[in-house]
Automatic annotation (TrEMBL):
The keyword rRNA processing does not apply. InterPro entries: AAA+_ATPase (IPR003593), DNA_recomb/repair_RecA-like (IPR016467), P-loop_NTPase (IPR027417), Rad51_C (IPR013632), RecA_ATP-bd (IPR020588), XRCC3-like_C (IPR047348). The gene is XRCC3. CDD domains: XRCC3. GO terms for cellular component: Rad51C-XRCC3 complex; replication fork. The keyword Hydrolase does not apply. It comes from Halocaridina rubra. Transmembrane segments: none annotated. Keywords: ATP-binding, DNA damage, DNA repair, Nucleotide-binding, Nucleus. Residues 85-258 form the RecA family profile domain. GO terms for biological process: double-strand break repair via synthesis-dependent strand annealing; resolution of mitotic recombination intermediates; t-circle formation; telomere maintenance via recombination. This is DNA repair protein xrcc3. Its main location: nucleus.
Amino acid sequence: MIQRAKIDATSNIVAGLDINPRIISAANRAGCGSSWNLLCTSKSELEQKTGLSGSDVDILISAVAKYLLPKQISAWEMLEDTDYNIPRISAGCSQLDQFLGGGIPSYGITDITGESGCGKTQLALQLSLQAQLSPNHGGFGKGVAYICTECQFPVVRLHQLISQMKKKFPQGPESYTDRLFIHHISDVDNLLDCIRYQLPALASRHQIGLVIIDSVAAVFRAEDGAEVNKPQALQMLGYKLHQLSSLNDIAVVTINQVTASINNKNLYGMNSDVTPALGLSWANLVTTRLILSRCSSYIGALHFHCSDDKGKVEPHALEKSYRQVKYRLRMLEVLYCPWLPRKSVPFVITTHGLENIDPNTVSTSYVHDS
């Protein structure tokens, strides 16, 4: 296994190289002290800028490449090294966290796909609030960049979840909206510009721990038939998102849509009439793919219902203060992930957000659609 060193591409590294001081001085005088300047400049340009010979430039480039080369590390060392453990954002639901191995990682791209109304945006909103909590409560203690590409941002639902978060975590942020940066984008070019220029600038000014694109397929579907090189644009998008995640320890979550599948069993082995949008061009760029779905079953629960605005219930009316409610059962499935097997877990969405199916509070009987 290899462990990649976290090095700022713009910082001066030549001073730490084990090479002739004369070469180091020449590189510094020419303003070529960073790994970015050295490795992104041709050999002839370096010779011209530094005044060094071709052999000296070869020595310089080789030393920089060796310095940046990931160091070998065993799997046991990775397990024992707490600094290497990948931070994760809690999904706000203990069953989902356990299912995902701790939550959504700050590594690579996590693609969440599913049909309309299955809960993708609900999960994205919950993650955007969880990320702002301290690490002790399953967050990063950082801000969130939320890129919205379709319809309006669900402000009402966001404030509902914020009110629930403040009750659940009174020691959390005073304002969840101060560190939630929302940007509306409707086309591919603006999305790429945002990922290439605006997001890195935002991450440098504010501590950003999570980037959400809701949804990644909408901008490409909106330009079907237009003069857009879709594979190239997807490749650039994926590369820049991976780069952003790697250099800044940012979790990247993309919300995806689905398309009709001709065969009942699609290329992922799913017995379904739908398949994730954007095809293999995007599938090969994401690290983890999760799929959300709505079941045809409902699950019953007893919820406490207050009789007045102050929440007070008379003792004689206590037994009447509970009402039966039904929640549609939903499933979260891992399609592929480097560290998780293919599996699924049920959950429900309530006014509190995504919640466990708790056998102590929820009845085990299912009511099927007629």
